[in-house]
Fold Methyltransferase type 11 domain-containing protein.
Amino acid sequence: MGLLSCPPCLVLRPTRPRPCLCSPLRCANSSRLSVKSTLTYSNTDQIEKDDAKSQVELLSCPICFEPLMRKGPSGINQSSISRSAFKCNYCKKAFSSRDVFLDLTVTAGLKEYEEVLPSGTELFRNPLVSFVYERGWRQNFARSGFPGPDEEVKLAQEFLKPTGGGILLDVSCGSGLFSRRFAKSDAYSAVIGLDFSENMLRQAHDLIRQDRALANRNLALVRADVARLPFATGTVDAVHAGAALHCWPSPSSGVAEISRILKPGGVFVATTFLSPVADLRIGALKPLQQAYRRVTSGSSLRYWIEAELEDLCAACGFIEYRKVRRNKFIMLCATKPKTSEDD
Ligand SMILES: C[S@@+](CC[C@H](N)C(=O)[O-])C[C@H]1O[C@@H](n2cnc3c(N)ncnc32)[C@H](O)[C@@H]1O
């Protein structure tokens, strides 16, 4: 076994190459984890005593990506999540629900150290921004060609059809406008809304609670950074990321993480904003275009040239890139390739 691992899926390369989860990058992983999608209740002290009885968890440690352990009733839903505590048997770090979501950031539970991320992330941690997000802010995206949540869900579900029935992770779910719709569709065994913003997750929780149709659905809220997704490699069926790629501090780290956690055959669907500057394929003009984008994107929100999105997906091991475009709106879909072992 070599020391270096594949950047998207972090699996070590054996000396004799074998097909991997990130094919066509060929990082040579062959084993896949089989994890039960169970969440069970306990408190942190209890976990210490009951390690032996704990079950393997879909959610993993954000430090080492080992599946977390926990004990108690199962189910990926707010009711069990809100009373749950988890522990990594490898790192020995404990995680428990804070407020209304399970905090699975690396910094969860820290008292002194505080991490401030770039403004594309920090903006949405603001309580006012979180409050107005579904009360006017999101509606403004229509001016760039976004068709609106109902239509966007329909488009996304067309792309997500091959993964129907599995676990859907709504990365950067914000106030949960898509997580709620996905959960109500009953097309997935569970929906996990994941975001870095505590206030967005609180909004999501309030809006879920107000909707009686969501009372008994398998819908859970988790706090995590897209660059450190708390799932083991190859364990999630589908990932949706609505209007978020342009906010992430490092889109390549985010897409690589999504690639890592998706099962072979898993689907990634994302929407974002295209640059108002046309995609200039003429070589001599490309530096001008890049310079424009660097100046206008800055450290907060970036606007994409479509070829970059396709490039990024391919670099992270995705195939079958497809898209729907309207004005500056783009919805892209890419698939995690199956290895010969999966056929
Ligand atoms: C424009 S909102 C999109 C919300 C929703 N998905 C939608 O389609 O309207 C962008 C979201 O990305 C989240 N976000 C920004 N940086 C993130 C990060 N590093 N990890 C996870 N989520 C992040 C923000 O908190 C915010 O909720």
Notes: Residues 198-210 form the longest helix (13 residues).
